[in-house]
Design goal:
Order of helices and strands of chain C: HHHHHHHHHHHHHHHHEHHEHH
Distance between the termini of chain C: 67 Å
Helix content of chain A: over 70%
Strand content of chain A: under 5%
Oligomer: heterotrimer
Number of helices of chain C: 20
Helix content of chain C: 55-70%
Radius of gyration of chain C: 25 Å
Largest sheet of chain C: 2 strands, antiparallel
Shape of chain C: globular
Shape of chain A: flat
Structural class of chain C: mainly alpha
Structural class of chain A: mainly alpha
Number of helices of chain A: 3
């Protein structure tokens, strides 16, 4: 059935790659948990640190665990996740922008 | 093991379809996150986020999932080296870590329900149980899948179809860890600080 | 034991519903009786129920669509009849609850069980053939999608007999669809019918997305894909990324209704507006899921029947992609009146208007394709011209509604109802019917009757105008949608005219079924021996009608956008290889109907809170999937000799039909007469490096 003739040699996953990814992910988990557990920063700053650590960790997972890159084998996977994330940002961001306005206006009505 | 590798490569079409399915799951989860963010302050006079969440348990769960990502990675490394027993051992370790995660999460849920913080109490708690529960359900099906794969490896060995299925399970398992990063960064850590 | 299900659910106070049940059960028994009498169960089981062949799956999708076209239309006529007879001082013949079930059922069935299966059916029939593939990427998943759609449709049908259907409108707005306002089982039926068919659609989207990206014949780069394949690709992307939003919304609504959560309840911290938001996050892309494949059909038929290369292919591709992306950015125009500030409304209003630009590009491309073409006025050209004029009007009323200020006045009025029927009937229905006529001979090996087809066209077109122009008037006069009675005497005459329009459409639908009947009766006269009845330009016309199970004995090499036309012009059509090879095909399996059957009972159990049955069915579905994964014997081989025999027979037919002579006489692509031929972007021929 399958007539895929993709002959590019795939890079086999290595223990080293997974370990690097794991250590990076561990650090990026410990930072936000530490910030919250020990109350190191103000709430606003802490939220920013949490957000940055999360985004970095997502990138680490995608690179080291899911092996995403622009090689021929992975290109469509990468394109599809980028497009999905774009649509997700439109849906979620658009809704939050919309509901924020609703929230503010209803609060004003309440006062 | 050359044949296994070749077969796994020829299977990129199947794996791509699974990846596309994961993309649709991304949208489901993003909707659940959206609902959670919308409802996260709506306590309806019930318990608040900082009263409900407990950081120590969440940290344990997070570590379990993170370590399980590593053990699954090691299973994939062993697969490409063709070590059947090592693959099964790493899969076993992944199962134990995943089961620990799920068991811990379930006991937290049961505790909350007994404390009167059940999913019927407020919009906030509905959204919390809905989002975290959906992730937990995924982990549950992931565990079933791990068991099925261990049985199939035992029966058939590291054949090409099994290598291909393991590649998809690997995508699924790492994907669940990705979602969990978003869960603790959106739900637990900001919730505890309130 | 049986949850909320009691004998009371079987009793109906309305005689009309009792009558409908008698008809439904009678028709069901008749079909069962006929199949038994002619001893066809074995044949049906072997060749249809267990098949994973995309061509047969496509046919079954369209059968589902036609059944629900009838039911959805009956509901619509009853709504029209009620409003025509319910003027001041009159009550009509329906009570409010039944009326609400009818307009809910009409919308739900027409969108989910008529339009969606119809377009998925056309995709199944045409896409693998157009891209030169032997099947879709996941044939079994394809069968599961089909039977899940059937299971969901069965849930809608059974709601007529046991319990009732939703009264909350096809969009099921909370809090009305919540448990407090709608305690009956109707909304649950609606939820699970949509949920199961939605999952089926997501799986279809994944399947065809991968098929189109990964299974194209060698040489078919993106800019050589037939236009229908392009629009289907964009539709599948929308299916994969939009339907999960509906899945999530419905799942949370189901939790609200059955386990007492507070996602959308409006009390206890729920947010009823979030449901409406999520519904339209899916709902607006859904409109383009329905409309884009029809655009693709129109592109195919215009090029074929105008005997010209499609004008502005590149602009058409970019317009399709632009529409697909923009469709995700406009959903808020469905609820401008929610209470957000004018900035938000203006932004989404402008985004909505922008969609008119790529759509306009397409309209011009079709018109320029017709310009100076040698037009054959076959039925699809009539649908095309009817579509161009009618759809443009509908689009313009849409641009009007995209102005938030105007929308405040018009929304929830019959003006809106007129608008979306004005886009969906020409934009989707006409396109689907054009595609039905166009690809019918490919599926069955004989062409459809032209005379009854034309009657059907005029019935639909005239009926449409008579039925919906009055609704525009009524909307401007201020009549809200979904009114069971009203006391404004000025409205009634328009509603009576609209009801007459429904009767004319009924004639169109009747003619369509007559067309099928007459064509089947006279099939020997209308045989399509060459597999290429229209002088087609794309690969599906290069093989026999109906195609052999393996589609292509040899996977074709594509050297041009109009791949088959290029072969005909360069005398490489119908070439035979020196020797044929064995072909591996997926084996038939009953697993798809087993899974779908379990899904049906799962939905039914959830509707009536029969938790043990729901759990059992879910476990059964997971168990079936696992059991299947242990099955390693899923393919069979068609030996080379058999392939050769089949192809020999086809070539004898081609000889008898004079196809070889016809092809020999063909020396150009057909657009040489046009002074603007150079604008039609002739593509470089030859194999890409």
């Amino acid at each position: 059935m399958s007539h895929s003739t993709d002959a590019t040699p795939g890079h086999a996953p290595t223990a080293r790659g997974y370990l690097i990814g794991f250590v990076l992910a561990l650090v990026l988990t410990l930072i936000p948990f530490g910030v919250v557990a020990f109350g190191l920063l103000s709430q606003g700053m802490a939220l920013i640190v949490i957000a940055i650590a999360a985004i970095l960790q997502l990138a680490v997972h995608l690179r080291f665990f899911l092996h995403l890159d622009m090689s021929t084998e992975q290109r469509w996977n990468t394109i599809s996740i980028l497009f999905s994330l774009l649509i997700m940002v439109v849906m979620v961001g658009g809704t939050m922008w919309l509901f924020y306005s609703l929230y503010v206006r209803h609060m004003m009505v309440g006062h | 093991m050359k044949t296994v590798l070749a077969a796994a490569r020829a299977d990129t079409e199947v794996n791509f379809g699974f990846w596309v399915y994961l993309m649709s799951d991304v949208i489901i989860f993003s909707m659940l996150f959206l609902v959670y963010v919308d409802l996260s302050q709506r306590y309806a006079g019930g318990p608040t986020a900082s009263e409900v969440f407990e950081l120590r348990g969440v940290f344990l769960e997070t570590m379990a999932l993170l370590f399980s990502s590593l053990t699954f990675g090691m299973a994939m490394v062993s697969l490409h080296q063709g070590h059947k027993s090592r693959v099964m051992a790493w899969l076993g370790a992944t199962f134990v870590l995943g089961a620990f995660f799920l068991g811990h999460e379930l006991s937290e849920f049961i505790k909350l329900v007994h404390e009167g913080a059940s999913f019927t109490r407020s919009g906030f708690l509905s959204a919390y149980f809905g989002l975290v529960g959906t992730h937990g359900t995924h982990v549950f099906f992931g565990l079933i899948w791990v068991v099925v794969m261990v049985v199939q490896i035992q029966l058939h060995g590291l054949t090409a179809p099994i290598a291909s299925r393991l590649a998809r399970l690997s995508l699924f398992w790492h994907f669940l860890d990705l979602v969990w990063i978003c869960v603790f960064s959106t739900v637990y850590l900001p919730g505890v600080m309130q | 034991m049986f949850g909320k299900l009691t004998l009371e659910a079987f009793s109906h106070d309305s005689l009309i519903i009792v009558f409908a049940n008698v008809v439904m059960i009678g028709a069901g028994l008749l079909v069962v009786g006929l199949v038994t009498y002619y001893r066809q169960w074995g044949y049906l089981y072997r060749e249809w129920f267990t098949t994973v062949d995309h061509k047969k799956i496509g046919v079954m999708y369209i059968i589902i669509a036609l059944i629900f076209l009838l039911r959805g239309f009956i509901d619509a006529s009853m709504v029209r009849a009620q409003q025509a007879t319910a003027g001041p001082g009159m009550d009509g013949y329906l009570h409010a609850g039944h009326f609400a079930e009818l307009f809910t059922g009409h919308g739900t069935m027409m969108i989910f069980f008529m339009a969606m299966p119809f377009l998925v059916g056309l995709m199944n029939i045409a896409i693998p053939l157009q891209i030169g593939a032997r099947d879709v990427s996941y044939p079994l998943l394809n069968a599961i999608s089909l039977w899940l759609t059937a299971a969901a449709g069965a849930l809608v049908m059974i709601s007529l007999l046991i319990g009732q259907f939703s009264e909350a409108g096809w969009s099921g707005y909370t809090p009305f669809s919540g448990l407090e306002a709608s305690p009956s089982s109707g909304v649950d039926y609606w939820i699970w019918a949509l949920q199961i068919s939605g999952i089926s659609t997501t799986l279809t989207g994944i399947n065809f997305l991968v098929t189109i990206l990964k299974k194209r014949a060698p040489g078919m780069g993106f800019m050589r894909m037939p236009m229908f394949t392009w629009t289907a690709l964009c539709t599948n992307i929308l299916m994969v990324l939009a339907f999960p939003a509906l899945t999530a919304a419905l799942a949370l609504l189901a939790l609200d209704r059955s386990v007492g959560t507070h996602f959308f309840t409006g009390t206890m911290g729920g947010d009823q507006m979030m449901y409406i938001n999520m519904f339209w996050v899916w709902g607006h892309p859904e409109v383009y899921i329905l409309v884009l494949p029809a655009f693709g059909v129109f592109s195919e038929v215009t090029a074929t029947y105008c005997n010209k290369r499609l004008f502005g292919y590149t602009s058409m591709v970019w317009a399709t992609m632009a529409i697909a992306f923009l469709s995700f950015t406009v959903w808020v125009h469905h609820f401008f009146t929610m209470g957000q500030d004018p900035l938000r409304n203006a932004a989404f209003g402008i985004a909505t208007m922008i969609i008119a630009i790529p759509t306009g590009v397409k309209i011009y491309d079709w018109m320029w394709t017709m310009f100076r073409g040698r037009i054959e006025f076959k039925l699809p050209m009539l649908w095309l011209i009817g579509f161009l004029i009618t759809f443009t009007m509908g689009g313009m009323s849409g641009v009007l509604l995209a102005i938030p200020g105007a929308d405040f006045k018009m929304h929830n009025s019959l003006f809106l109802v007129a608008h979306f029927h004005n886009v969906l009937i020409p934009g989707t229905m006409f396109g689907l019917l054009a595609g039905f006529y166009y690809w019918f001979p490919k599926s069955f090996g004989f062409t459809l009757d032209e005379k009854w087809g034309r009657r059907s066209f005029w019935g639909w077109l005239i009926g449409f105008y008579v039925a919906f122009v009055p609704l525009y008037m009524l909307g401007i006069m201020g009549m809200p949608r979904r009114m069971v009675t009203y006391d404004n005497p000025a409205w009634q005459i328009w509603l009576i005219i609209a009801a007459i329009g429904a009767i004319i459409v009924a004639y169109g639908i009747f003619s369509m079924f007559m067309q099928i009947y007459v064509s089947v009766r006279d099939r020997e006269k209308n045989r399509d021996l060459s597999g290429d009845p229209w002088g087609g330009r794309t690969l599906e016309w290069s093989i026999a009608s109906p195609p052999p199970e393996y589609n292509f004995a040899v996977i074709p090499e594509v050297r041009d956008r109009d791949a088959f036309m290029e072969m005909k012009v360069n005398d490489t059509a119908y070439l035979r290889p020196e020797r044929y090879e064995d072909i591996h095909m997926p084996r038939s399996t009953p697993i798809a109907i087993v899974i779908a059957g379990l899904a049906f009972f799962f939905g039914f159990a959830f509707v009536w809170h029969i938790w043990w049955l729901a759990g059992l069915c879910l476990a059964g579905i997971v168990g079936s999937v696992i059991a299947r994964s242990f099955n390693t014997d899923t393919e069979f081989v068609i030996p080379a000799e058999e392939v050769e025999r089949t192809e020999d027979a086809f070539h004898r037919q081609l000889e008898a039909d004079g196809a070889f002579e016809r092809v020999k006489g063909l020396k150009h692509y057909g657009d040489e007469r046009s002074p603007h031929a150079h604008l039609a972007e002739p593509v470089e021929r030859g194999t890409p490096a």
